[in-house]
Amino acid sequence: MAAELMPMRADGTLPPLTTLVRWMGALPRTASARLRCMPAGNSVLPDLLALGGIENLASPGLPACTWSGAASACVRLNPSADARAPVHHRGAFASAPPSDVVAEPEPADRVTDAWEILRAVHESSPTHRDPVPSPAGPWIWNPFPFPRRALATIALEAPQARSVIDAYGRRHPLQALGGSTERLVGLELGALAGCGLTASDEPAAGAHWDVGPSVIDNGRVRAELDADGRVSRLCWDGLFADLAAPAVRASVDGVAVAGPWEVRVLESGPVRARVRTAAMTAGGRMNIDYVLHEHDDCLRVEVAYDGEGRLEIGHATEHRANTLMVADELRIAPAARGESLRGLRWLALGDDDARGLAIVGATPFTARVDDGLITVLARRQLSYALAAKHRSPRTLPLSLLAQSLESPHRVRTGQTLGSAPTSASAFRFANLRSLVPLWAQKPRDWDGELLLSEQALARGRALFLPPPGQGGRVGIAVTVDARGTVVRTLPMTPEGDGFHLDYGPGEILILRWRLSVGGAAAGGAPDIAPPALPPGRRG
Predict the structure, then answer these.
(1) 479 - beta bridge partners?
(2) Mean pLDDT, to the nearest integer, of 418-439?
(3) Which of 4, 153, 516, 536 fits a disulfide with 469 by CB distance 3.0 to 4.6 angstroms?
């Protein structure tokens, strides 16, 4: 049987993990895989292919060997019948750019997948048959598998509305968008949770804003701008980043954009502030927007350039000797300086205090770090955030922040769940640490599925807490491979309210759960017996 070609982005980096898992799930069980070239961040491939039961991998230009990953899974690289005793290789191979153009893999639909879980949780809830009057307004929900604060754009017919009240009675300020009926609102929601909103003409307390041509400040993050619109000083919660020179310095093909720069305020709160700096270059117009959301702990930077050439945005720091940490979707690791690093979701440079600087991408980006200078590379558009390397307990870890930057909350006007104005989180976790939830979807005959990746090469035990089902207790949780075959059943907690999830260094996990035990498992398998409660506990 011919080896199946692994999907890859045109720049030679791996596509999102969920794309690869779905690709492996559709392969024959005896499939082998092949690569056009060795991608960046390839140390995860043995562990990833093990999830799909793929034992053989062909890649041009590399010797035959047994290749092991961080989680100790192995794959046979370039096996041949006449090969001698296999050489063992552990860790990454040098990556190479593709020799030809590779079509971008079709992205999965995070929003549709997440909505199906949210609906399943509501239908399995013991209280969903007792509808509560629906609010006279939009219904907002979080399509990500972790709690977060984000914005949403809603349409309101009441032009005098100055705030909205959520289903918990909390009031949130509104921000008008131009002359339309649309308003901007920000609120915090749990993992895959939703909430209805009702318009009000009363004001609501918001962030403490200070916005002008030389500063943008929401009370947590403060960025001071020089006359050319660069960030001369940046602080989070009163602690300043160690910048060696003004940050967000723009160049095209290595030539600094001289300006003159025009700086103006586009938005000044109460939900979002935006300051734009603009200049004409020899090749075209460049806009750099600094964006802050209320209560946010990072400064968003949005760059648009309509000319030709390579766009370079520099951030000079005092951290010339500190370890550079980078992360793609699957792994956090130290990286070499002076090289172009592709497919990054974030990078961080500095000490473990709050003065270190992190660059976090809304999408995968390319960067180079040399002698304390962080340069982000792009062609025409770029969207990223400047954040503190050190994350406090009340902020998202950098891996989750990168995901959160991808998308705002979603709005479903007139589409609530069974008339209920709110839905609790579809699940909760405790002690996640370096185990990162990446994707949520609903497979057939299960109430939900989560794709998780351990990113810091650490071992631990997380606590998974789904909501109770119709019987008033949780049902069952298992881990499966890419084809949906059960690998192990998770043990229940002594309290009977959740499950222990053990994970190893670099492990990639697919977690499935059913809120009530019954029905066929995915793929027509027989029912799986629920884990027994510890002695002395009742369901």
Answers:
(1) 488, 511
(2) 77
(3) 516
Strands (E), 371-423: 373-378, 381-388, 410-411, 422-423
Residue 380's φ and ψ, nearest 5 degrees, are -115, -35
What proportion of the chain, given as a percentage, has pLDDT over 90?
39
By DSSP bridging, strand 74-77 and strand 163-166 are unpaired
Full set of structural domains in the chain with CATH = 4-90 (no CATH), 126-205 (2.60.40), 210-404 (2.70.98.30), 427-524 (2.60.40)
230/250 Cα distance (integer angstroms): 9
> Exposed, middle or buried: residue 168 (CB in 10 Å: 0-12, 13-18, 19+)?
exposed
Q: Torsion angle of alpha carbons 32, 36, 40, 43, nearest 10°? A: 20
188 close to 149: Cβ distance less than 8 angstroms: yes
CB 154 within 8 A of CB 197: yes
Query: For residue 121, which phi and psi values (nearest 5 degrees)?
Result: -60, -45
CB atoms inside a 10 Å sphere around CB 193: 19
pTM equals 0.86
| Cα(300)–Cα(275) distance, integer angstroms | 11
Question: Please, which residues bridge with residue 327 across strands?
Answer: 332, 346
Q: How many CB atoms lie under 10 A from the CB of residue 200?
A: 18
Amino acid at 66: T
Two tokens at 241? 């980043």
DSSP string, 465-481: EPPP-TTSS--EEEEE-
Q: Which residues pair with 290 in a beta bridge?
A: 275, 301
Angstrom distances, CA of residue 449 to CA of 444, 482, 513? 10, 11, 7
- What are the distances in angstroms from CA 22 to CA 12, 117, 226, 247? 19, 18, 48, 40
Rg of the chain (C-alpha set): 25
Residue with tokens 């104005």: 421
* Higher pLDDT among residues 525 and 109, named by residue: 109
Beta-carbon contacts of 284 under 8 Å, excluding residues fewer than 6 positions away, are 305, 306, 307, 308
On whether the CB atoms of residues 17 and 329 are closer than 8 A, the answer is yes
Which is nearest to 275 in space by CA: 237, 236, 222, 313? 222
Q: Tokens standing for 507?
A: 């492990």
Cα 168 to Cα 150, 162, 398: the distances in Å are 17, 18, 29
**CA separation (Å) from 219 to 87, 211, 265?**
57, 11, 17
Among 414, 520, 437, which Cα is nearest to 476's? Answer: 520
The pLDDT value recorded for residue 473 is 64
- Contact criterion met (CB below 8 Å) for 366 and 378: yes
Which range, of 187-196, 351-360, 447-456, 493-502, averages the lowest pLDDT?
351-360
Q: Pull the structure tokens for residue 120.
A: 């399943």
Residue length of the chain = 539
Could you give phi then psi for residue 22, rounded to 5 degrees?
-65, -35
